[in-house]
Design a protein that fits this description.
This protein is an alpha+beta fold. It folds into 3 domains: 297 residues, no CATH class; 113 residues, no CATH class; 57 residues, Arc Repressor Mutant, subunit A. The chain contains 15 helices and 16 strands. Strands 1, 2, 6, 7, 10, 11, 12, 13 and 14 form a 9-stranded mixed beta sheet that branches. A 3-stranded antiparallel beta sheet has the order 5-4-15, with no helix packed on it. A two-stranded antiparallel ribbon has the order 3-16. Helix 5 crosses helix 6 and helix 7 packs across helix 8. The mean pLDDT is 94. The structure holds manganese (II) ion. Manganese (II) ion binds next to loops.
Length: 494
Amino acid sequence: MTSLDVRTARPDQLVSGDKGQWEIICGLEVHAQVSSQAKLFSGASAAYGGEPNAHVSLVDAAMPGMLPVINKFCVEQAIRTGLGLNAEIHRWSRFDRKNYFYPDLPQGYQISQYKEPIVGEGEIEVEPDGEEPITIRIERLHLEQDAGKSIHDLSPNETYVDLNRAGVALMEIVSRPDIRSAKEAAAYFNKLRAILRALGTCDGNMEEGSMRADVNVSVRRAGTKEWGTRCEIKNVNSTRFMMQAIEYESRRQIEILEGGGLIDQETRLFDPDKGETRTMRSKEDAHDYRYFPDPDLLPLVLDEAWIAEIKASLPELPDAKKKRFVSDYGLTAYDAGVLAGDSDAAAYFETVAKGRDGKAAANWVTQELFGALNKKGVELSASPVKAEQLGALLDLIKDGTINGKIAKDVFAKMIETGEAPGAIVERDGLKQVTDTGAIEKTIDELMAANPDKVDDVKKNPKAFGWWVGQTMKATGGKANPAVVNDILKKKLGV
Ligand code: MN
């Protein structure tokens, strides 16, 4: 077991119980919906939503005699994802039936991959907020079908079944139990999401359930090596809930163990309203599913040339992008990570930064733009300020048309109206005053009106700030600050 157990929690990650320190052991099974128009084994639409049971073929409804046909595009997406996770691509894999009964599973089994998954071991680098990067190992990625949906809340005594999701292609990505804190779990999930989105193999839309995680949690006394009994928390669909669930579940297990009890291996649900996990069912073992190779499907044998072709077409991934943002644009590792971690943000930033000062572009994007969008609760893709317009605003600062302070006012108007910065500057008369004559006149008037302050600044250099502030105010913030400084120094003799 030692080879599987490569990480030990740092002292600050240990959890204190009443009777000593504990280590959290956590692994994630992430279900990611393949971005594909059609389902895994039928031609029915895999689109989200739609009228109930509108996207159901005879295969999805498991009509007698219907046979599954593998969707090559979905296989390609799984290979692409495996390559993006630095993982081994298995040239030979196969599909198995995982047998169980549920009303939203008309076949009576899920077609999945059990012993021979399409993707084997891989690893990704993860950077929990403010901590050193860690490597989380991936055990496997396999392809499988999603089930339909049972709807229990439309009628007091009936359950409805919607098969639109039945048969949709999922990639189940299983990590090694390398995660040692709730924060690491969230960072791993976010990194995985960034990679899938960059690859284009999953849209990562958590509201629509495109990515959801089963979280395995166990605890053991600090300094010991033996694994504890784990519980699996099913279908967690946000990183915030994931962190709450891990924190709650580890505390629950510690309390039981310190009280002399034992942990039952079980599947649990996280209740976001109460912030707690509760029993869903006692854990079934793999043999309960009676897995066996699906006789309707041939083994999946991959052609080397095809894998090579997919490899050659991989886009730049977040890690490489981050490095490039640091080297090409001079960004801090933190800003580069924030921007490279999301493909929309990265593309937006690069449009703004192209041919301009990269650091200034990063500041405007991560601080002003993200701040404003956050406040409005708007996604970047729906930003009223397009990247080209933000770039134009930076040009107006660079060529001296407006100063930095006015630029923020112009930006606030852009966010409200979506107008171009040039038009706002023109209409509102916001052009920077660099005319030294006009600035000198303003300063002369201020000096005549404030003789005491003229004396003051000679004795106390800190009072200079008052003069800069007053001059800027008198020009409506439009004066060129550098020119104002020069003239003030000359006239005040400081
Ligand atoms: Mn699964």
